[in-house]
Specification:
Elements (H helix, E strand, L loop, with lengths): L4 E3 L4 E3 L5 E4 L7 E6 L4 E21 L5 E19 L7 E6 L5 E6 L2 E6 L2 E10 L12 E6 L6 E6 L4 E5 L11 E3 L12 H4 L4 E4 L5 E5 L3 E6 L8 E4 L8 H6 L9 E3 L5 E5 L4 E6 L5 E5 L23 H4 L7 E6 L5 E6 L2 E7 L5 E2 L1
Antiparallel strand pairs: 1-2, 3-4, 4-5, 5-6, 7-8, 8-9, 9-10, 11-12, 12-13, 13-14, 15-16, 16-17, 17-18, 19-20, 20-21, 21-22, 23-24, 24-25, 25-26
Length: about 350
């Protein structure tokens, strides 16, 4: 969908990799999809195409003895680029999110968030701009943006300092002044050289009813109530057992890994990925934690369970020895069905919740 390019003005190579993918409202029998790399956003149309193909050495005879070739319908999926939204960002795009009106979407880079109309590819409106006059005064960058599921005037954006800000486009055209901010003060006793890095939010999601917000940083998963800004409803320490290994993680760049998170369709469960090909499915109320290994034959209770912190003591050697090259960075939950998809390296696994409550491929 995207090709490698080169920005001659900034002498930067633009990779063809896809940073974000979002589904749009279908049109008739065709699916619509937004994809983006570092600089260019594209709107795609995906549609099944049926064409007759002759079956070799297969014929039908009529009454006169004339042979007619037999045909079968071959189904293929065709794609075509409907719109190309380019030249809207000076910095690398990290996320896109479709609005609830299904006519507009927002795209975010490190310093700005733009509002686009799906039908207009040459014009966008800047709704958030945190670029300082002097770049030496830059203290934070935008890491993700997400539109409200039912209110087209409301959206969230997160930054590298661990804050989530809710903006209302009805207040001002430029939403630099947020309507709400969700942040939790760091515990001074746990502050270290790596605190700013591990507090950077990698992903944020609204629940389908817009009541809850889910955020994921390197160490933990946080569930917020939109009506309560002071503290999260629940904090899940996914990687607490790695806190003593932050120096090693910094040296091999694993500390910069960005794990995604997701809500279930009924908002009762939340999901995120981890290392060693494991991903977690949590009960929203904190009563259940299911750890599943992303393989062709997943185990409900793996022989080597996901490492966790035990009490106040330090984790054992087995708990901290994880394969950092095997990681579930990408995850998604079906909006209506108990079906999840997770990405591991170059493989996508799709799991369904069976009748007994276990996970099956």
């Amino acid at each position: 969908s995207h090709e490698a390019e080169f920005d001659y003005l900034k002498s930067l190579e633009i990779e063809e990799k896809i940073n974000c993918l979002r589904w749009c409202k279908p049109i008739n029998s065709a699916f619509m999809m937004l994809t983006t790399n570092d600089k260019t956003i594209k709107l795609w149309k995906l549609q099944e195409r049926k064409r007759p193909v002759a079956i070799v050495d297969s014929y039908t005879n009529d009454k006169a003895g004339v042979k007619f070739p037999m045909f079968r319908k071959e189904v293929s999926v065709g794609s075509s680029a409907r719109r190309v939204y380019s030249n809207g960002h000076a910095y690398h795009i990290n996320s896109i999110s479709l609005n609830s009106d299904c006519e507009t979407f927002v795209s975010a880079d490190d310093l700005r968030i733009n509002l686009w109309n799906l039908g207009v590819s040459n014009t966008s409106f800047n709704v958030v701009d945190i670029k300082p006059d002097n770049m030496e005064e830059l203290t934070e960058v935008i890491t993700a943006a997400c539109c409200h599921p039912t209110q087209c005037n409301t959206f969230l954006w997160s930054n590298s300092r661990g804050s989530i800000k809710l903006a209302d486009m009805r207040c001002k055209a430029l939403c630099d002044e947020h309507a709400k901010v969700f942040e939790e003060e760091d515990d001074p006793s746990r502050r270290s050289f790596f605190s700013e890095i591990i507090s950077s939010i990698a992903d944020i999601k609204f629940s389908s009813d817009g009541r809850y917000v889910l955020s994921r940083d390197y160490m933990c998963l946080k569930l917020w109530d939109v009506n309560m800004e002071s503290r999260p409803l629940r904090t899940i320490y996914v990687h607490e057992q790695l806190r003593s290994k932050l120096c090693d993680l910094y040296e091999n760049d694993s500390i910069f890994d960005k794990f995604q998170c997701a809500f279930s369709g009924d908002n009762n469960r939340i999901m995120t990925g981890s290392y060693h090909n494991f991903f977690h499915v949590y009960d929203r109320n904190g009563r259940q934690d299911r750890c599943i290994e992303a393989t062709k034959k997943p185990n409900k209770k793996p022989a080597r369970p996901m490492p966790r912190l035990r009490g106040k003591g330090s984790p054992s050697k087995e708990e901290t020895e994880m394969d950092l090259d095997k990681k579930v960075l990408h995850c998604s939950w079906h909006p209506n069905m108990p079906v999840v998809a997770v990405g591991v390296l170059n493989t996508v696994y799709v799991y369904a919740d069976d009748a007994t409550g276990g996970a099956g491929p």
